[in-house]
Automatic annotation (TrEMBL):
UniProt family annotation: Belongs to the universal stress protein A family.
InterPro entries: Rossmann-like_a/b/a_fold, Universal_stress_UspA, UspA
Domain of life: Bacteria
Species name: Spirosoma telluris
Protein name, entry field: Universal stress protein
PANTHER family cross-referenced by the UniProt entry: STRESS RESPONSE PROTEIN NHAX, UNIVERSAL STRESS PROTEIN UP12
Lineage: Bacteria, Pseudomonadati, Bacteroidota, Cytophagia, Cytophagales
Residue stretches making up the UspA domain: 1-146, 216-276
Amino acid sequence: MKTILVPTDLSPMTDAVLSVAVGLARTTGAEIVLLHSVTYPTMMLTSAYAEALPIVTETTLASYEKIEEDARKVLDGFSNNPAYAGVKITPILLTNGQGLVGAITDQPADLIVMASKGASGLEELLIGSNAETVVRYAHCPVLVIKHPVAHFQPENIVCAVDVDDKLKSIKRYPFQMGEQGLHQFLYVITPTDNRDPDGVRDWVNDFACAKGITEFEFVTRHARNVPDGILEYAEATKADLIVLFTHGHKGLLHLLEGSVAEDVLNHANTPVLIMRA
């Protein structure tokens, strides 16, 4: 892994995300790109203010410059934190309406690490961006951090799977799990699901072997819906990482269709890693 991209809205959760990213960077030798897109206030002008337009424009520009200056200071403060010494962190400030989502998809990276605000809908879920768009169009795995993590080295890993051969094109994880890491491949059986569990088990065996995963369990869980099944099992097993799979911009897998991704990301109490096929 060479580059970890960390989008931020400069909130206090930035340090929590950076701590995880720095820990991963130290074990992989990666560099970090810390990305923030400046948000400008919207000024509504009517014909009543037409004569004052030059004054308004100068005032607005001065205000925008101050906003950018303040944002750059905060961004530099995060990147220059002595706690992150030894890891190269490059701060990038997007101005003049440059979109964060576009920058994320254009920026070369092996992993995106983002923060989560909680159960308020996907558009506000991931700090500083439209979560659904970022997850759908991200060119690399996305690690979502829900709360500060003292030492991120997941060992109890729940991988929620759907039987889809396109998943077999997914590369290995962007970072190493704990040496004693146990993968639990979870398949949620809903009342309308008629798949044969033995067939799912065979698919999981092939999938795990193709990824070089030798220590794993196959688990089925009956639930009213897929999100509930994932969340209930993760909580019951005290998982420290939930792994979900997507097709990126080509559309989410059945596992993530509808409100599944939103529900899991909003309500999970553990980090969530989203892998793209």
